Amino acid sequence: MKHLFIAAAFALFSTSGWADAEHTSFAFGEPAPAAKATRTVEVVLKDIAFEPSSLQVKAGETVRFVLINQGQLPHEFNLGDKAMHAEHQKQMVAMQGKLFTGGMDHSQMGHGEHGHDSGNTVLLQPGQRGELTWTFRSAAPIEFACNVPGHYQAGMVGPLTIE
């Protein structure tokens, strides 16, 4: 039953909604239009893993990530450093808590650097496909991760090396 409530809440977020939002730039890069991509990488989201488990890109490269959730749970693909993931996890837990108190306040999702409208995150329901296109600016220690509560801690995270 708890999973049903969580899935219903995630269904409220459109995976294409971030495309209309004002995006944030990060030290490691920023969102880009798919037409600017020089390479496409398919990433499969499973329960509780990514395929591939690590990624490599070049500084200055624009990569179109095609994301496929083959799992039975909602998952996200989020680009960021460890601190960004920790902050986003707090926001995801807070959002989950709203499910059991009679509603959700979307303003609490952290619109800005770590929310779902920053261009560095795509949230997918089971069976859903999505895309994220990113221009990588400079070498930085970042990860791609799922910050749905408990998923990062269970190992749904991988290194992204910017050369």
From TrEMBL:
Alphabetical list of Pfam families matching this protein: Copper-bind
Keywords for this protein: Copper, Metal-binding, Signal
Keyword Metal-binding: yes
Signal sequence, start to end: 1-19
Keyword Metal-binding: yes
Domain Blue (type 1) copper: 42-163
Name of the protein this chain belongs to: Cupredoxin family protein
Organism of origin: Pseudomonas shirazensis
Species lineage: Bacteria, Pseudomonadati, Pseudomonadota, Gammaproteobacteria, Pseudomonadales
